[in-house]
Amino acid sequence: DMNGNVMRVFKGMGGNGIVCTSVDDLICITGGYSGGAHVLDPATGRTLMACSEVEVRSHDKDPYIITPYFTTFGLGRAAGQLRAYKVVRLTDDGACEVLTLGDGARWRKAQPPPVKVPNNRGSPVCINGILHFLAGKKLEEDSLLCFDLESEQWKDQLIEGPRKLVADEEWQKTSLIRVTELNGDLCMIQSLLQMTVQPRAKIWILSNPDAGSWIKAYTIPMAYSTCFYTPLMIRDDGKLLLHCIIGCATHRTSLVLQLYDPCTGACSDVMKMPDNLIERIGICRWRLDGPV
Length: 292
Description:
Elements: E1 18-21, E2 27-30, E3 37-41, E4 46-51, E5 71-77, E6 85-91, E7 96-100, E8 108-110, E9 125-127, E10 130-134, E11 144-148, E12 153-154, H1 168-171, E13 176-182, E14 185-192, E15 200-208, E16 213-221, E17 226-234, E18 240-247, E19 252-261, E20 266-272
Antiparallel strand pairs: 1-2, 2-3, 3-4, 5-6, 6-7, 7-8, 9-10, 10-11, 11-12, 13-14, 14-15, 15-16, 17-18, 18-19, 19-20
């Protein structure tokens, strides 16, 4: 909970995976490389879906080397009348598959994305029934590819990120781009790290998806020891709860929850995470015996 108490533990969910949470109450835990995925209901403790690993390629150039698929999973709720939960799976050969939770169906093929989606750009984010994928191959590229969960169709146009609002010289200092959900809005984090005089994280909010309009909501100073900030939620007092990775991208030293006060421009530690925690934290809004 928000006080750091462990409310529920799930075992047997796989190795170094990625946690992607829905806007409300479900969690999707995915494995690395061709690893499977589990969709969990933390309120009841039930596993709603257990997806096995994707089969390895049958056309490897070297028959003595097994090359796994790289997969990207996304979880979200469609915006139609039924508001069904759906899981989308992309593989690195360009395939796209969709599964609807609760109907007992298997994976069904959907149209492939119009451009290839890299597997190393983080989890996609679902806002209002649309899954948003970072589509660029480079770490500083910010275009978003959109998948409508109701129609199960890719939108023709990509959403341009906030790069158009920043001078080219400054944008070239960007070391990492990620997207997440922040209090119901799509949020993009632009990290400017050691290559700058003042390392900082800029947090952009997509104010109008149809027009591709962005608002710069926060500019947060970052310590040189900080690798990456992920905003988790805006609290009622206006402070921003952040997941902070201390250390470099390949050799992190610790994970910390911090509060950023926009009035003072200062961050303060809330708690340090356990040492065995993988570098993924998300917010899940559910109830056990009360708000969590």
